[in-house]
Amino acid sequence: MKKIISLVLAVLLVVTCFTACGNTDKDGSTDTNTNTKTIKIGGTGPLTGGAAIYGNAAKNGAQIAVDEINALGGIKFELNYQDDVNDAEKTVTAYNTLKDWGMQIFLGSVTSKPAVATSAESNSDNIFFLTPSASATDVLGGVENPLTGSVEIDRKNNVFQMCFVDPNQGAASAQYIFDKKLGEKIAVIYKNDDVYSTGIYNSFAPKAKELGLNVVSVTTFTDDTSTDFSVQIADAKDKGADLVFLPMYYEAAAMIFTQANNAGYTPKYFGVDGMDGILTLDGFDTKLAEGVMLLTPFNADSEDESIKKFVATYKEKFGETPNQFAADAYDCIYAIYNMLKDESVDSKTSASDICDILVKKITADSFKLDGLTGESMSWDATGAVSKYPKGMIIKNGAYVGLD
Amino acid sequence: MGKRKISKNTRQSFITYGVVIAAYILLTVLASTGALSSTFKGLLVPVCAYIIAAISLNLTVGVLGELSLGHAGFMSVGAFSGATVAIALKDSVPSEWVRLLIAVIVGAFFAAIFGFIVGIPVLRLRGDYLAIVTLAFGEIIKTIVTNLYIGKDASGMHIGFLDGDILERGGKMILNGPNGISGITKISTFTSGFIIIMICLIIIFNLVNSRSGRAIMALRDNRIAAESVGINITKYKLMAFVISASMAGAAGALYALGQNTVTANKFDFNTSILILVFVVLGGLGNMLGSVISATVLYVLPETWLRQFSDYRMLIYAVVLIAVMLVTNNSKIRALVSRLIPGKNKDKEDEKNV
User: With CB atoms counted within 10 Å of each terminal CB, which end of chain A scores lower, N or C?
Assistant: First the structure.
């Protein structure tokens, strides 16, 4: 009996301990002030699990913007991020939880697959959806499948993206490699169970063909095989590729750099925006990333005043260098702020009314946003953002502009 | 006397039906009066799907006594075949109910075929070996679906493997490789989920109380003894396994048609284990236990535990361990049965089974 009692007590202790943690965390991050001018903004992202780095970055970036705006006076925001574990099923529950909380504007989901689900949900509820980083075309809807030319998912009129849409990145990368004559023989390694990676590859491949790039090796990996790249690296090496295109997130890329280096293979590498963040990865030897080129909208080492300020605040608050996800989320909040600051909306305005206002404003020709991830960014009815990627190269452990 | 004689199995099954029906009526009333939050409303269909998956796995694990770690694979087969059919028939079958019915039947049918194909070689194995092979089966299904492309154009349906370029201009992709199926029209409803749960429960209880069911349980309790009295091992094992697989397929179809998008990654090893956890916590062979544990363990981390933010899944794990320890502790069980007088004897009987 004693054992049981002590067990129950131990469990209780653990639970109360974490209750305390949870509560302080909550109090620290959200504004409990119930001002009538306070607009409730919700978002879902992977705050726990394998993709947590992206969800937390977006959450933190958005929080910085919210804190800055609340300090300005006038319209105030309250931010609530719910965990979706990067799962299309859990994200709907997270979205419904936010709806019960009284969310008026939705920052969307951080990752692509959950965003496909939540964008459909928010479309039927008519809640404004502006995702920082979900780049798949299925999120927006209304985009033609390049293989068939038909639209498989209808355009969701309330949905907008802050990041580049996948096909643009793939085609832009092919164009960039061609224009700058970066490689004679090109190898591609991509993750074929991932929407982001396949989306980029599927638009890279036709463009590369059209431009006459010499792609000598195309190999794939999946979530389960993302720790051993010896086969892919050997294939690229044997075919004599001098440039390896890596449309993937940086954890896998870091593995490839390390393993290729061990195998004595040192080609040039070209990445996309998911590569951003590789320099801050724990335990990664940044020397291996030397000379890696990537297309990204955000550069944490930029001399730009607003970026410097953002990076400093982020470092001070969260103890790490922000990546592109954080910057995108920061820009999302400011986009919403710029659209709403002159409107007479308050905590009682319905989500649907706010959505109508925001959709009208964001697609207007006059609306331009200067943010961390681009200058004079604008949106049209397709929901995709129009901004230019910056070509970056890693030199001495820092990003340097390529041009 | 007479009452006690029919009781045991029959009473157990009627209690299960009663609880499920009561829960359905209660939730329907709550939903119609608007007392149910959006969160709960959104959880209803997935919960139904997981309940069906749990009771079907309970048939394999609890009644047949074989450990299967690839149950999500059967759900996957049902989900993708069912959803593909539902999307393909969208224009020709306007009624949502009929479309859902066809999808669920197709999902169950394909899962049954896979259950049969996998079952023939696999059921020759026992214990750990069977578990490992079913685990591999789940992974194989996941990899196949990840590389499978199904589309529809003017000349009909096309299937491609590894290569997505299978359609003429103007065709529509249904299953798009790693992107899975997007743009599903949600046609699963709570009522349809409830009906499928009831059908599955009726099938399972009637099977268990039948001649075949007794043969299956005899195999579980002592294979050699069962064989010596002339029970055809392969036949009865396969029977239980295929029925279990087809129900999982129905669960998969119901699940997929209640989501906006499904990918093959959803039905991985973790999902199989999750369903197994529902079954083990609910009690092997105890269908009502599976229904309750699937509901509680699915709803808990999504609702009440959200207040713990980052520590949510940690607390969930602690809860799982605590429940496992508490329900397996004979002293606590004795305490509970003392607290509920009258039920004392039955409870003890059940536990000794």
Answer: C
